[in-house]
Amino acid sequence: MEKVVSLCKRRGFIFAGSDIYGGLSNTWDYGPYGVELKNNLKRAWWQSVVYERNDIYGMDAAILMHPKVWEASGHVENFFDLKSDCKQCKKRFKDADLSDKKKCPECGGELTEARAFNLMFKTHQGPVEDAQNVVYLRPETAQGIFVNFANLLDARHPKLPFGIAQIGKSFRNEITPGNFTFRTREFEQMELEYFVRPEKSEEAYAYWVNERFNWYLRLGLKKENLKQRPHDKTELAHYALACTDVEYNFPFGWSELEGIANRTDFDLKQHAQASGKDLQYFDDQAKERFYPYIIEPSGGVDRSVLAFIVDAYTEEKVKDEIRVVLKLHKTLAPTKVAVLPLLRNRPEIVELAKSIAADLKKNIITVYDDTGAIGKLYRRQDEVGTLYCVTVDVQSLEDKQVTVRDRDTMQQERIGIDQLKQYLLTKLS
Ligand code: ATP
Predict the structure, then answer these.
(1) How many CB atoms are closer than 10 A to CB 415?
(2) Structural domain span for residue 237
């Protein structure tokens, strides 16, 4: 884990938040490579969940929502953790993490009785800070979908089964954030709410558990590092019929990447009751009116980014040296191609390399780098997962060919400059 954290900082994937002020604990900023990787991951999710299907619609709801949303959803009443403080060292612990509820696990001091803390961030809308203006930063994106259910029915007239997908920030005032970006107070979620006839919910649930699990595999997570963990009945929320977590074998242990739940008709019924609006679905063939059940695959962007980095991090021995290479899937790799002049003091080579890079950039995420000797440039690109390095040398000036090096095999091939873009586009497709 330390190696991954250090690589993330050194190469510009993830920095500590507010670093120059000593940091704000457990906040993280994504640097140039991090933002690309994160965007690629979100795009891959959207591609498989929205674009490749006919039955799912995208949306982007506001983070701030009417406070009644959180009453109806049960978050005001139920979304809390129990925590105890150590009277001696003053540290705070999540009750669920304590094996001995009376004794501090760090200093052995006496613990206070467990108290409930709501995990929602609370603030005020407008200039007056009174109880009437309280709003919460959403602790999940899902509610933005539920409250738009009727809007979507009106706007698009979808037939069951259909889904609504959303990616966005969520906030939870977690008691025990940590493990780098795994658990933070501000994070991004990718959530799908899939509406089905009640009698079809178990089938749809099994489908989505499988589909979401396979999505991680298709994007390259190693099979041995991924598993499904069905919840037992005692773990389930009172309204949920079933839930399965997709877990990843992080260096700190197996932990949740995504949860897939059968939420029944709880959410729509709650919002219908609290808002007084009709949130039933009308089946015009069967002439029936009913509340659909909801299957919810809910994943974390930041956790997935971390899992993909950890999984891709590879150290290989190459001629008595250790090569660090980030073997990210081609869809996720932040940079696809790097163009590198072999001799940076030869203006004709530099010029040719720059013009090749400029042309590739129109279609492929490409960087140009001439700030070091070729060995160093290769190492740098390997560490950030760049798929192909294109080297321009003296011979290129004459034979109009360049050397293309594959990140994973390190094999090199001479390719004509006029064929290069097509060659790379084929490899990347
Ligand atoms: P955990 O048990 O780890 O707290 P959860 O079961 O409360 O997670 P859900 O409410 O199911 O999580 O949220 C769906 C997804 O959102 C999680 O699978 C995770 O990927 C992500 N997520 C939830 N809380 C956090 C957090 N504090 N930091 C980063 N990601 C989070």
Answers:
(1) 17
(2) 2-79+119-309
Q: Do 111 and 169 belong together in one domain?
A: no
**Domains in the chain, number:** 3
pLDDT, one tens digit for every residue, the chain (429 residues): 999 999 999 999 999 999 999 999 999 999 999 999 999 999 999 999 999 999 999 999 999 999 999 999 999 988 888 888 899 998 888 888 888 888 999 999 999 988 888 899 999 999 888 888 999 999 999 999 999 999 999 999 999 999 999 999 999 998 888 999 999 999 999 999 999 999 999 999 999 999 999 999 999 999 999 999 999 999 998 889 999 999 999 999 999 999 999 999 999 999 999 999 999 999 999 999 999 999 999 999 999 999 999 999 999 999 899 999 999 999 999 999 999 999 989 999 999 999 999 999 999 999 999 999 999 999 999 999 999 999 999 999 999 999 999 999 999 999 999 999 999 999 999
Identify the residue whose C-alpha is closest to ligand 1 atom 4.
183
Measured from the Cα of 255, ligand 1's closest atom is 3
Q: Which of 264, 293, 309 is the last residue of a domain?
A: 309
Nearest-atom index, ligand 1, CA of 298: 14
* CA distances to 49, 271, 278 from 147, in Å: 20, 7, 11
Asked whether residue 89 falls in the same domain as residue 99, the answer is: yes
pTM beyond 0.85: yes
User: Residue 365 in contact with residue 337, Cβ under 8 Å?
Assistant: yes
C-alpha to C-alpha distance for 183 and 70, rounded to whole angstroms = 22
Residue 245 sits in a domain of what CATH number? 3.30.930.10
